[in-house]
Amino acid sequence: MTRPITAGVDGTDESLAALAWAAREAVRRDAPLRVVHAWRFQTRHAVDAGDRETQQRWVRETVEAAARTVAGRHPNLEVGTEVREGDAAAVLLEEAAASGTLVLGSRGHGPVVGFLLGSVGRQVIAGSERPVVLVRAGDRADAEAGGREVVVGQQGEPEDSADALGFAFETAAARGASVRAVRAWTLPPVFAYSPGSMKLLDEAGGLEPYERTALSEALEPWRERFPGVRVVEHVEMGSAGQVLLSVAGQAQLMVVGRRARRTAVGARIGSVAHGVLHHAQCPVAVVPHA
């Protein structure tokens, strides 16, 4: 059974752009679409919206209206709705676990306090076991026109970026787009060299050829699995976030990996994902490393 693509909505322009993006992606992948809203009862002091029953009815009507809009644009798309009362981050993480992809607006401050506030969005991205896509309010369908790329970051060993690469290739194949795989590298401190690493570098002919070989090896299984997807290999010296953003001009989607990192103040999404989410103009997919 194909996992659904789930979009979180709260009536803001950001969430409606996320819903439109999710609907188009669900059509491409022949997957059902779920339209989800997490809410909490607001007292009269916070929102002049009546009693609990009135607020719940208003929320359901808003969600169902959004679902009808995308169903009208995509008549063959299976669309379902879900309105759940509770902690926004907890609800969305549960919904994400049952989905192929969770799609959210990049930020939002709607009349009903919802999950698109920055702190909740960060919790969802950091805690989700499934890919989370962030979409800005200005995103349009024509930004997915031919010639644009799915950009994906690759780092470390092949297995370190396998989930991000897999998501990028699947998305590109569904769209008929190409993949630009980016590997950024920096000069390591002298003390980081070991006899073994020095031998590998010598055999590769230097640092940059070594990095190019590493990227090619990471891409090899995905080229074989998706032979129809055109691939551009991009190796550049610099910080990963800066290099990714420098090639984002023709990107339909930016894909970055995320390792689970927990600190005393909770889960963190990592500096590369954090930087790309704040500065990329295209939608960004954050894919957890298994």
TrEMBL record:
Residues 1-136, 151-288 form the UspA domain. InterPro entries: Rossmann-like_a/b/a_fold, Universal_stress_UspA, UspA. It comes from the Bacteria. Pfam families: Usp. Belongs to the universal stress protein A family. PANTHER family: ADENINE NUCLEOTIDE ALPHA HYDROLASES-LIKE SUPERFAMILY PROTEIN. This is Universal stress protein. It comes from Streptomyces tagetis.
